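Team,

Forwarding the record for the chain on the shared tracking sheet. I've put the sequence and predicted structure together so nobody has to dig through attachments.
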Amino acid sequence: MASAQSLLVIERILRDRAGVWEQIRDDRDLGPLTGQLLASAAISLALYGAVLGASNGALQAVASAVKLPILLLVTLVICLPTLYLFNLVFGARLSIRQAVALVSVAVTVMSTLCLAFAPISLFFLVTAPHYSFYKLLNVAIMTLTAFVGLKFLVGGMRSMNQPAIPPSVPAAQPVAAQPVPAMVGAGHEGQPAALPAADAPAPTNGAAPMRPLPPAPERQASMALLYVWIVVFGFVGTQLAWTLRPFVGSPGEPFAIFRHIEGNFYVDIVRTLFGL
C-alpha cells in the first residue's frame, strides 16, 4: 500500500502543483509527504539503473539499480545544508523540513522522468548496442530530466517567497440622501420648508485598490543564490557519479562495482564524443 502511494505521489505533483506548494508553505504533514517522495524517487531510479546496467549483464544491472538511488540521495545530503543556510542568510522563512520537502519534489520529478525514458533507452540498447552511444544517450537523458526537476525546485521556491495576500475589505456603501427640515422662511401656512440635504460623503475606510508590490531585495537575492546552489548541486552530482562508476559497464572490462578513481566526468564525456 505504501509503495502504491509513493508511486502515485508524482501524479499529485503534476496535477495539483499549487496544492503541493501550499502544503509545504503551511508546513502540513511534511513527514509523510517527504517519505513518499523519496520512496518514489528511489524506486524510479532503481528501475532506471537496472536498464543502465543491463548493457553489461545481470550483475551490472543489479549494481546500477542499487548505486543510482544512492547517488542522488548522497548528493542531497551533501548539498541540502548549503541550500538551507543560503535561505537563512537572506531571510527566507523555510524550515529544514520545508527545504527537504521542496528538494524532494524536484528529485521525484527528475527520477520519474528518468523512468519514463527507460523504454527509449532500452530500445536503443537492443537495436543499436554501441557502448559510447548508449552512455551518451543516458547522460543526455539524465541532464534533461535534471533541468526539468530543478525547474520545479525554482517554481516551488518562488511560491514559498511570495508574500501573503491580505484579504480584501469591501468598500462602504454611500449613504443615501435624506430630506432635512430647514427653516428658510415661512413656508406654506407657516410650516418649515424641507430641503434635501447634500449627499453625505462616503466613509474613507473603504479599501482602495492596491498596487502590486515589487519583489523585495531579500527574495531576489534568495532566488539568485538558489541558481548558485543548482550549479553546485550539478557539480557535486557529476563528481559523485564519477566516483561511483560504472553505471554502464564497459564491454571490454570485467564486472566491477567500483572503478579506480582517475580523471573526471567531463574529460570522459569529451573523450567519448570524439570516440564515436
